[in-house]
């Protein structure tokens, strides 16, 4: 986790004014710093301050050259007309101060010439700045359009799920990067992908666009989730270089209570049931997309029960590899447990803000977070009657996924793994056969 109208970038305020030691500024400091840098009144205040020092300090013409700071600063905060106005005010006040102190004519002319020169230079700089701002506004408009086409907004409700996304691009002024996500309703249930392209910059954006385009088409066409992955793999094999690849998790929800997943070298998603947070490690890991030619095996379909009230967090390594000033990684599992609630958007807002605070205000790698929640449609649940349902006094628990049954959460002792079946390749629908490990 970039979303003002930015599809999950960051809706929440951040704290960029953080020292390397981890301390933060007091609350008024950021506002004062922002005002000092951006207000157009500051150049006039500087000119007035110099005049007040002369009137009440009795320093003569000592501070007179500092009048040039007014038009110089106005060049970065004001329009060209404003720079000229500040320069004219500074010149008139400078002439008045020089005359008041019987300043030599040659020295006064020199000071006024310097003020006029700084004013004209500042006016030119202001004109160029305004021109660059117009160009940047046009570029940002194109970037917004590209983001709408590439990383489409995720609505709050997708099929049977509540959903939320946060995305942050590492490149300065960028809205999109090498991380990707998509969540689409299809005839075969809701399907999703979260991935990370090797590398950064425009080449990574191009690869992300390729993957998302193929995924959105294949997700609607292919009954078998593994065939969706195969379509993406074939497209990347034709278009990527030998050293390029994409790690990704492709998941689907074909029927109630059944979540299918294919993990292609990506970070394990976090399954949240009640107060229990655990990674869904792949039983048979598959290589990243684009490297399938290095192995002979086909990807395996992993099936995980996904019940009412369950949540699933998919993310990229820009989140888990984010470091603070002491080079400590961000503890994602503990973070999601702290901020967990029944509204995915609120959960991700708090999580993303904490992540940015952890790194000091700005991530150094692309980061994406996608959180799904299956709402509870039945009546109130008795925590004692259903294992895994949190009671009011229970604290979040984070434990690794193991092969042992967990009677507290009700999670299965092992996830279901489906190797590639010949009858599926012949056109069988998902769920026709299951091999339970």
What report would you give on this structure?
The chain folds into 2 domains: 39-145; 155-425, Phosphatase 2c, domain 1, CATH 3.60.40. Helices cover 39% and strands 17% of the residues. It is built from 11 helices and 13 strands. The chain has helices at 28-38, 42-57, 69-77, 80-100, 105-150, 201-221, 225-239, 317-320, 332-339, 344-359, 422-425; strands at residues 157-158, 161-168, 179-186, 189-197, 246-255, 257-264, 270-273, 276-279, 301-306, 311-315, 367-373, 397-398, 416-418. The strands form 2 sheets. The chain has a 7-stranded mixed sheet with strand order 1-2-11-10-7-8-12. Helix 3 (69-77) packs antiparallel against helix 4.
Protein traits:
437 residues, alpha+beta, Phosphatase 2c, domain 1, seven-stranded mixed beta sheet, single chain, disordered C terminus
Q: Layout of SSEs?
A:
Elements (H helix, E strand, L loop, with lengths): L27 H11 L3 H16 L11 H9 L2 H21 L4 H46 L6 E2 L2 E8 L10 E8 L2 E9 L3 H21 L3 H15 L6 E10 L1 E8 L5 E4 L2 E4 L21 E6 L4 E5 L1 H4 L11 H8 L4 H16 L7 E7 L23 E2 L17 E3 L3 H4 L12
Parallel strand pairs: 8-12
Antiparallel strand pairs: 1-2, 2-11, 3-4, 4-5, 5-6, 6-9, 7-8, 7-10, 9-13, 10-11
Helix pairs in contact: 2-3, 2-4, 3-4, 3-5, 4-5, 6-7
Instruction: Kindly provide the name of the CATH class of the largest domain.
Output: Alpha Beta
What oligomeric state do the depicted chains represent? single chain
| Number of beta strands | 13
Number of domains: 2
Shape: elongated
- The CATH superfamily of the largest domain is identified as PPM-type phosphatase domain
- Strand arrangement within the widest β-sheet reads 1-2-11-10-7-8-12
- First-to-last CA distance: 35 Å
CATH architecture of the largest domain: 4-Layer Sandwich
Radius of gyration, CA atoms, in whole angstroms: 30 Å
> Would you tell me the structural class of the helices and strands?
alpha+beta
CATH fold node name of the largest domain? Phosphatase 2c, domain 1
- The ordered string of helix (H) and strand (E) elements is HHHHHEEEEHHEEEEEEHHHEEEH
Uncertain runs are: 1-28, 31-39, 380-437
Largest sheet: 7 strands, mixed
- Strand fraction equals 15-25%
Mean pLDDT across residues = 77
Number of helices: 11
């Amino acid at each position: 986790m970039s979303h003002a109208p930015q599809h999950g970038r960051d809706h929440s305020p951040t704290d960029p004014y953080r020292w390397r030691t981890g301390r933060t500024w007091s609350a008024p400091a950021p506002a004062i710093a922002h005002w000092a840098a951006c207000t157009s009144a500051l150049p006039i205040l500087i000119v007035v301050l110099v005049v007040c020092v002369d009137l009440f300090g009795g320093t003569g013409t000592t501070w007179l050259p500092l009048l040039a700071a007014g038009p110089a600063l106005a060049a970065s905060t004001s329009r060209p007309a404003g720079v000229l106005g500040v320069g004219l005010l500074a010149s008139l006040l400078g002439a008045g101060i020089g005359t008041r102190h019987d300043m030599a004519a040659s020295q006064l002319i020199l000071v006024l010439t310097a003020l006029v020169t700084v004013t004209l230079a500042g006016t030119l700089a202001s004109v160029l700045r305004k021109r660059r701002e117009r160009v940047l506004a046009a570029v940002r408009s194109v970037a917004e359009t590209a983001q709408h086409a590439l990383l489409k907004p995720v609505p709050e409700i997708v099929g049977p799920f509540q959903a939320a996304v946060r995305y942050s691009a590492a490149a300065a002024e960028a809205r999109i990067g090498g991380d990707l996500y998509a969540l689409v309703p299809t005839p075969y249930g809701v399907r999703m992908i979260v991935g990370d392209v090797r590398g950064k910059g425009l080449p990574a954006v191009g690869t992300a666009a390729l993957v998302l385009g193929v995924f959105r088409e294949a997700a609607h066409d292919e009954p078998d989730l593994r065939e969706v992955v195969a379509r993406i793999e074939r497209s990347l094999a034709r278009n990527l270089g030998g050293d390029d690849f994409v790690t990704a998790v492709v998941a689907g929800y074909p029927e109630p209570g059944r979540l299918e997943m294919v993990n292609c070298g990506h970070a394990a998603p976090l399954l949240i049931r009640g107060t229990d947070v655990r990674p869904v490690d792949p039983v048979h890991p598959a290589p990243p997309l684009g490297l399938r030619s290095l192995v002979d095996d086909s990807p395996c379909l992993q099936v995980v029960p996904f019940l009412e009230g369950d949540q699933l967090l998919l993310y990229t390594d820009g989140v888990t590899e984010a470091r603070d000033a002491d080079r400590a990684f961000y503890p994602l599992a503990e973070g999601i447990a702290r901020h967990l609630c029944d509204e995915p958007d609120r959960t991700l807002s708090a999580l993303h803000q904490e992540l940015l605070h952890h790194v000091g205000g700005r991530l150094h790698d692309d980061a994406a977070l996608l959180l799904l929640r299956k709402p509870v449609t039945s009546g109130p649940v008795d925590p004692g009657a259903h294992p895994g349902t949190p009671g009011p006094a229970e604290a979040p628990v984070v434990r690794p996924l193991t092969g042992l049954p967990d009677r507290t959460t009700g999670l299965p002792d092992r996830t279901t793994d489906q190797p590639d079946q010949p009858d599926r390749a012949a056109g069988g629908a998902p769920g026709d056969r299951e091999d339970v490990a």
